[in-house]
Each structure stands twice: as structure tokens, then as C-alpha cells.
Design goal:
Strand content of chain A: over 45%
Largest interface: A-B, 25 and 25 residues
Radius of gyration of chain A: 14 Å
Oligomer: heterodimer
Order of helices and strands of chain A: EEEEEEEEEEEE
Distance between the termini of chain A: 41 Å
Helix content of chain A: under 10%
Largest sheet of chain B: 7 strands, mixed
Shape of chain A: globular
Distance between the termini of chain B: 37 Å
Strand content of chain B: over 45%
Number of strands of chain B: 11
Number of strands of chain A: 12
């Protein structure tokens, strides 16, 4: 069965510094990978996805993620963090070879400090 | 384009009472999902509809949870009777495609507190 691990419950970073939110996955075939962001009392918002092709995916609000098949990782990155990036971030995976749903990690809370 | 609409945003009930949540997906989206998000956890799929048919309800506690999608558009999720462990945010999402590469669009959620 497919699964996602987000090893960090909390990531703290100073404004202007680069940020990384980690995600590793387990799936039998080639994965579809997604990142979502959740602001307080709001639903999840789509940031970016990897389906195929270039391993570096660019998304909304200056975020990007790198697909690494050998390390089964899909870490979220941003070159320069903003205080407004503070939120809860979810990685999700779907195995397109089986008729399986989108499975989410438990989330990582990002706190950007001014 | 209007997003996914959910109501009510907040609901407080006592255990053993019933509650219903409503969702209106994005126009034209054939696939509708209900997820349960317990505090400190990622969203967990409860049920997926394709038009008005159920695709996956394997994680829906069918002894107390039910859901329907009226005419392939709006959907209602009901809990009866509620338990303390049902306290969570219930997220509705929709997508144009089914289990493909398309992203899900989420509503703002309905927060349930069971006392």
C-alpha cells in the first residue's frame, strides 16, 4: 500500500533564508506526488505536483519540489522564506497503477520568523 | 470560478446525536471526495464519488457514517450517532478527473466537535 512520511512535525526558519520541508514516499510503481498548504481554519490549497518529466517542479508562491526516485523523496523548497509562508504543509502520493486514492502525510508545520 | 462550498463551518453536538454536512463541488467536476482530518493528522479519505456513484468507501465507518451525492452534484455526509472520536474537520474536495493526475480542490471544511 502507498504511504507518505513527513519526518518533521515542525520546521522553523528565519525570513529570507531558504526552506526545505521533507517528504518521502512508498509506492509500488511510478508515483504521482503532490504538495498542499493549509492556512489556519482553511481548506487545503494545491501548490504543485510531479507526474512525469523534469524532476524539478515549480509551483505556486515561489515553491518548488525535487523528485528523487532513488531516495524516494519529494522535498518542498523555497529559496527565500516569507513570514506569510507560515502554515501547515502536506505531501501526498497516488499510485497510478492501482485504483488507489490520494494518500496524505501527517503534515509539517512551517514557522517563518521575522 | 467559485470554489468548493461547505456548510456548516462549525458544529458542536453531544455524543449520540446526529449531524449532517453539505458540499457543493466546483461546477463540472465529476469526482467528489469526503476526507476526515483529525487534529495532528493528515486528511483520510472517507468516500469518493464519480458522478453519483461510489468509487471507494472502504474507510467509511458504515455503521454510523453515510453519504450520498444528489444528482451527481451536491453531496451530504451524515454521522449518526456521533462518537467522541468523530471530532475532526470534514473536508470536501472535487476534481475534474478521477484517480489520475489531476489535483483536488478543497473546501474550507466543517469542524465538528463532539462533547
Amino acid at each position: 500500500a502507498q504511504s507518505v512520511a513527513q519526518p518533521e512535525d515542525q520546521v522553523n526558519v528565519a525570513e529570507g533564508n531558504p526552506l526545505t520541508v521533507k517528504c518521502t514516499y512508498s509506492v509500488s510503481g511510478n508515483p504521482y506526488l503532490f504538495w498542499y498548504v493549509q492556512y489556519p481554519n482553511r481548506g487545503l490549497q494545491f501548490l504543485l505536483k510531479y507526474i512525469t518529466g523534469d524532476n524539478l517542479v515549480k509551483g505556486s508562491y515561489g515553491f518548488e519540489a525535487e523528485f528523487n526516485k532513488s531516495q524516494t523523496s519529494f522535498h518542498l523548497k523555497k529559496p527565500s522564506a516569507l513570514v506569510s509562508d507560515s502554515a501547515l504543509y502536506f505531501c501526498a502520493v497516488r499510485d497510478p497503477s492501482g485504483n488507489t486514492p490520494l494518500v496524505f502525510g501527517k503534515g509539517t508545520r512551517l514557522s517563518v520568523i521575522a | 470560478e467559485a470554489g468548493v462550498a461547505q456548510s456548516p463551518r462549525y458544529k458542536i453536538i453531544e455524543k449520540r446525536q446526529s449531524v449532517a454536512f453539505w458540499c457543493n463541488p466546483i461546477s463540472g467536476h465529476a469526482t467528489l471526495y469526503w476526507y476526515q482530518q483529525i487534529l495532528g493528522q493528515g486528511p483520510k479519505l472517507l468516500i469518493q464519488f464519480q458522478n453519483n456513484g461510489v468509487v471507494d468507501d472502504s474507510q467509511l465507518p458504515k455503521d454510523r457514517f453515510s453519504a450520498e451525492r444528489l444528482k451527481g452534484v451536491d453531496s451530504t455526509l451524515k454521522i449518526q450517532p456521533a462518537k467522541l472520536e468523530d471530532s475532526a474537520v470534514y473536508l470536501c474536495a472535487s476534481s475534474f478527473l478521477g484517480r489520475g493526475a489531476g489535483e483536488l480542490f478543497f473546501g474550507e471544511g466543517s469542524r465538528l466537535t463532539v462533547l
